[in-house]
TrEMBL record:
PANTHER family: SERINE/ARGININE REPETITIVE MATRIX 2 (PTHR36562), SERINE_ARGININE REPETITIVE MATRIX 2 (PTHR36562:SF5). Keywords: mRNA processing, mRNA splicing, Nucleus, Spliceosome. It comes from Diplogelasinospora grovesii. InterPro entries: CWC21 (IPR051372), mRNA_splic_Cwf21_dom (IPR013170). Gene3D superfamilies: 6.10.140.420. It is found in: Nucleus. This is Pre-mRNA-splicing factor CWC21. CDD domains: cwf21_CWC21-like. GO terms for biological process: mRNA processing; RNA splicing.
Length: 193
């Protein structure tokens, strides 16, 4: 036995006396709160902004969809045994047509419900557009900061308190003078009696 760890003697215990630490033991958590305080949470949330989609990736995905359709046409025409020059012209025509449609469709993006979960940038772009429509519908200014109303109200309260404090200090200064006068009058009356 060393350092008061383990058995004083392994005799009769059915063990070799070798001491191991308990790997199943869970250490207690820190005594700190498991969640940040409301003030800390609000401060951290103010700095969070909507994730901006990568326009390059969005454009790449759109062009990729066009090229997939062009490749399907090319594959179908090759299976039919069409001449290579004719395949190229038909593919170029389809590519131009699809790119023109893509430019027109860009303003009419698909709704969020039509997007898949793996289309992160498309979802972010749709969410930004949806938030912008909502902001315009509710007539919220672009420079609006969440909780700004409460800040203004708090500033008004601080201003009102700041104006009241000098008045209270003046009253406090007047009170001791009144108390001193009362004490003097009380002493005079005692002397007279």
């Amino acid at each position: 036995m060393s350092d008061n760890v383990g058995l004083s003697t392994p005799r009769g215990s059915g063990t070799s006396g070798y001491v191991q630490r308990n790997l199943a033991h869970m250490r207690p958590r820190d005594m700190a709160a498991p969640y940040p305080s409301k003030k800390d949470a609000l401060d951290s949330m103010r700095h969070l902004k909507q994730r901006q989609p990568d326009q390059g990736l969005l454009e790449h995905d759109r062009k990729r969809e066009v090229e997939v359709k062009v490749f399907e046409l090319r594959d179908r025409l090759e299976d039919e045994g069409v001449d290579e020059d004719e395949i190229e012209t038909k593919c170029d025509e389809l590519r131009k047509k699809l790119l023109a449609e893509m430019e027109k469709k860009r303003s009419n993006e698909p709704r969020r419900g039509q997007l898949k979960a793996h289309q992160i940038h498309e979802l972010a772009d749709a969410k930004i557009k949806e938030s912008e429509r909502l902001r315009q519908a509710l007539k919220i200014s672009k420079d609006y900061e969440e909780g700004s109303h409460w800040k203004k109200q708090e500033e008004r309260m601080k201003k009102a308190l700041a104006e009241q404090q000098p008045q209270e200090q003046q009253e406090r200064q007047r009170e001791p003078e009144d108390d001193e006068e009362e004490e003097r009058e009380g002493r005079r009356e005692r002397r007279r009696s």
